[in-house]
């Protein structure tokens, strides 16, 4: 063990001397490894950060949550022209499923409507996303209120003129000092009573956030837009009870909605039952593909870096031929010489890799500063991966130079080096 520590120490000293004595040559040889490690770890960190942000934005939803609508989350065997002819889900179908499907924890009916302006006295907020939902949306999304409450079932069913505000909307309309509860705001030219304000969430991945949205009973929007407006893109969102077999639950949902629509056994379902787990799997596949593509592209830089390390090691063997001969004449075994050059190659590659990791760290700090609430994360695992890849590149690049050094004849080596 001691001899290997000695070899490692000597190899480290040789690597440092190479950096000191031949700065330009060593720098040019290491730049490929640095760029390669920077590229790989930057891609891994960016994909990890993106995935973490998406998962964070979906954290309020359980993966077992089901969304029924006329479009599919992923690929489907149904032709596109046929999908375009599917009818939208309706409020009546939502009520029917809520009554008839067992093991259902909560269900909500939602409409997507254009952004609207909200006004309170002289203050106005423009282009605000409107969430038209039923009361159970509160439980499905696991919303948290800083003050007040969400609208209840009676208010939802009757289409009461009540509204729940996001934190930023409340601040812009009333300021931080004024209590929003009980105030009247105008949306769609109508008066709405503020009954609740959500806790501050922070910006989402694409700038969307509950902080900048408001929620009103879906039946208010139904009165304004009607039930045959394709632009509202209705959805039925369902959360099954915990412990329920999802496959059986989805089969029951499908059967009940087919029954409601009067579809025959041989007819294709005119709706899609999408599960958030499927969307999560799709995200995993996309991020996995991004990782693979990034690794392939970065691999070319590492290939160049590997040739650079091999080159500097061959030069090092040539420059130290006399020293190798002396070491062998004093009893140094081939294995000692082999490990000495292998360790040196690994150390040089790791130095290049650490420089690449440092650059990624700097970029991650700058990226987090310029992207607001989106956090660019450089995880300890990615740092370990970067260091390990550097060491492997150094090991592979140093094999041939190390073997050539270990096989030198001591007499010939001393004569050649003189």
Automatic annotation (TrEMBL):
Task: Pinpoint the MacB-like periplasmic core domain residues.
Answer: 26-255
An example of a Pfam family matching this protein is: FtsX
* Cleaved signal peptide residues: none
Coiled-coil residue spans:
none
Q: Which positions fall inside the ABC3 transporter permease C-terminal domain?
A: 296-410
Q: Recite the UniProt keywords alphabetically.
A: Cell membrane, Membrane, Transmembrane, Transmembrane helix
The places in or outside the cell where this protein is found are: Cell membrane
Keyword hit for Transmembrane: yes
Entry protein name: ABC transporter permease
């Amino acid at each position: 063990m001691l001899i290997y520590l000695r070899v490692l120490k000597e190899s480290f000293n040789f690597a440092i001397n190479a950096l000191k004595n031949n700065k330009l040559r060593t720098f040019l040889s290491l730049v490929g490894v640095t760029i390669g490690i920077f590229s790989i770890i930057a891609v891994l960190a960016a994909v990890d950060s993106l995935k973490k942000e998406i998962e964070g934005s979906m954290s309020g939803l359980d993966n077992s949550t089901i969304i029924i609508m006329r479009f599919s989350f992923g690929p489907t065997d149904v032709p596109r022209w046929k999908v375009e002819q599917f009818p939208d889900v309706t409020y009546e179908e939502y009520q029917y499923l809520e009554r008839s499907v067992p093991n259902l924890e909560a269900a909500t009916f939602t409409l997507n409507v254009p952004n609207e302006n909200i006004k309170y006295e002289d203050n106005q907020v423009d282009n605000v996303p409107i969430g038209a939902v039923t009361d159970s949306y509160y439980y499905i999304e696991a919303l948290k209120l800083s003050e007040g409450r969400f609208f209840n079932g009676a208010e939802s069913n009757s289409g009461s003129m009540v509204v729940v505000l996001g934190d930023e909307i409340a601040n812009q309309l009333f300021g931080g000092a004024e209590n929003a509860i009980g105030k009247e705001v105008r949306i769609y030219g109508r008066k709405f009573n503020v009954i609740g304000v959500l806790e501050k969430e922070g910006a989402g991945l694409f700038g969307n956030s509950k902080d900048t949205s408001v929620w009103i009973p879906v039946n208010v929007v139904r009165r304004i837009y009607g039930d045959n407006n394709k632009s509202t893109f209705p959805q039925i969102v369902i959360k099954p009870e915990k412990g329920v077999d999802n496959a059986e639950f989805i089969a029951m949902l499908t059967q009940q909605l087919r029954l409601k629509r009067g579809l025959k056994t041989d007819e294709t379902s005119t709706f899609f039952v999408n599960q958030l787990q499927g969307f999560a799997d799709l995200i995993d596949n996309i991020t996995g593909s991004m990782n693979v593509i990034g690794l392939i592209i970065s691999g070319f830089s590492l290939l160049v870096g590997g040739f650079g390390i091999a080159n500097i090691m061959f030069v090092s063997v040539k420059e130290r031929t006399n020293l190798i001969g002396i070491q062998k004449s004093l009893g140094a075994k081939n294995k000692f010489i082999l490990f000495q050059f292998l360790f040196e190659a690994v150390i040089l590659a790791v130095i290049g890799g650490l420089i690449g990791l440092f650059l990624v760290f700097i970029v991650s700090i700058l990226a987090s500063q310029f992207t607001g609430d989106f956090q660019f994360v450089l995880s300890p695992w990615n740092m370990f991966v970067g260091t390990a890849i550097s060491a492997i590149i150094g090991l592979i690049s140093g094999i041939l130079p190390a073997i050539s050094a270990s096989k030198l004849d001591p007499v010939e080596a001393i004569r050649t080096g003189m």
